[in-house]
DNA sequence: CGCTAATTGATCGGTTTAGATCGAACGTGA
DNA sequence: TCACGTTCGATCTAAACCGATCAATTAGCG
C-alpha cells in the first residue's frame, strides 16, 4: 500500500515503475507458461534480486506460482493429494478385516463380492481357497482373482464407473437377478443401525441391492471410519445384514445397537 | 555459462522445473501403464538418479507404484511377473501399432475392443478422444480407460479367463449380440490370408466372432510375429476383415495376399 | 541545500537440487 | 542353486538458487 507510486497520474516522470515491471513479468509468464528467474531478470532489465522480490509479491496475490528456479502459472502443476488416500488410509485395518472376512468363506462356496477397496483386499485372501465360484461387478476384485485357477470368476456386465472401478447399470443388475449365491460380501460408505448400509451413488446402490437379494447371507465389510455414518442412498437395510466385519476402533454403541438387531459381529484387532 | 544472449526477448530455453518434470513423468506412466526408468530419464532429459528420486517422491504421494526397473500405475492393476515383456520385448512395435490404430478412431465413435496386450496398448491411446463409447470384454482395456471421464466403457459379462484377463462364455456373447458398433478392434494369435484371424482357445474365439458380427468394420491388430501364423480356431475370416494394422517386419507376401483379398493395410514403422 | 525515505543492486551464508560413484540387493538365466 | 548383470540405495560433490543484510542511488520535502 505504501510502496505504490506517489502520483496516480504518472505523467510527470518516466521511471520504470515497479508496477509496470511486474506487469511485464506477469505477461512473460503467461506467454511462456514457465520462465526462469534469470531470463525474467534479463527480459525486464533488472537484477535477479529485484525480480525475485516482484515474483514473491505476485505469488502473494495468487497471480503466479513460485518454484525453485523460476515462476509458472498458478494451478498449472497442481498435484492432487487426495487420490490414493483411500487405499493407504487404513491399510492395516483393511487387511485385518479382510483376513477375518475370509474365514467366513469355505471351499466350494458360491459368493458375490461388491465394489470397494476393502472388498478388493478381501478378494486377495481368497486365492488359497479351492473350488470357489465368485460373482462380482468390481474390476479390482476380478483382477485380484484372475491368476487363481481354482477360483471361477464371473463378472456382471454393465457400464464402467471409473471412480470405483466397478460395473453398474441394468446389465449388472439383471445379471445378478438370475443368480443365487450363499453369501454376498458388500462394502459401502456408511453403516448405521437405523438405516443400514448406504452409499452416495444411486447406480452403485442399485447394484449392491441386487447383489444382496441374490444372496442368502449378507456380509458387510466396513472399517471404523464408516460405522455410524449415513450417506445418501440406502443399499441394504439392517434387517437383511447377517454379518458385519469391522475393526476394533468402531464405536461400541453403534455395534451394540447393530447386534441387538440381529447382526452378527466380527471385530478384527487392528 | 553466461552465454551472450543476442536478444533479450524472453525467448530462451524453457526451464524445466522439478514439479513440471514430475508431472511429465506421471503423464508418461499414465499413458503407457509401465515405463522403465531409463526411458523415463531419456524422455524428460534428466539423469536416472534424478528420475529415481522423483519416482520415489511420487510413490510417497501414492500417485504411482515403483517396481524394479521402472514405475507403473498405482493399485497394481497390472500385476504381471514378466515386467520386461511389456516394456522392452516388443513394446515399441506394439506402441507403433497402437498409435496407428488409434488414428482409425474418431471422436463420437462407438467401438468394440477385444482382448490382448496389443489392444490394451491401443486402448491407452484413446484417452484423448472425447465422446467415445467402448464395448470390451477385456479387463485390461476397461482398466486402461477407467480414469477417462469422456469415454463411456461398457463391459460384457461372462466368466473370467485369467490367463488373458478377459470375459468369455455365453453372457459375453449375448451382450455383444444386442449391440452395434462402427468398428471392432480385435487381436488374435495368428493371421493368414487363407484362414483369417485365429486363436487357440474355443471360448475366446466365440467371443471374438460375436464382437466381429456386432461391428460394421473389423480392424485386426497384429504384430509381425502373428502374420502368417495359423492357430486352432478361426475367429474372423479374411473376407470380414476390413483393416489390418501391423508393423513393418511382417512378411510382405502374406500382406500382399491379404491386400488382394480386400484388407486395407496399415503398416506402422517399428 | 541538506535530510529522510524508498527502491534497487550486491554480497554472503544457508539450503535445495542434480549428477556421480560404490557397495548391496534384486532379478534372470544356466 | 548359483553366478552374473542390472538396478537400487546411500553418500558425496558441485552448482544453482534463495533469503537476508547492507550499500548506493534517487526522489521527495522541509
TrEMBL record, chains A, B:
Pfam families in the record: DeoRC, HTH_DeoR
SUPFAM superfamilies: NagB/RpiA/CoA transferase-like, Winged helix' DNA-binding domain
InterPro entries cross-referenced by the UniProt entry: Carb_Metab_HTH_regulators, DeoR-like_C, DeoR_HTH, NagB/RpiA_transferase-like, Tscrpt_reg_HTH_DeoR_CS, WH-like_DNA-bd_sf, WH_DNA-bd_sf
Domain of life where this protein originates: Bacteria
Keyword check for DNA-binding: yes
All residue ranges annotated as the HTH deoR-type domain in the record: 18-73
Classification via Gene3D superfamilies: 3.40.50.1360, Winged helix-like DNA-binding domain superfamily/Winged helix DNA-binding domain
Single GO molecular function: DNA binding
Presence of keyword Lipoprotein: no
Alphabetically ordered keywords of this record: DNA-binding, Transcription, Transcription regulation
UniProt name for this protein: DeoR family transcriptional regulator
Organism (species): Planobispora siamensis
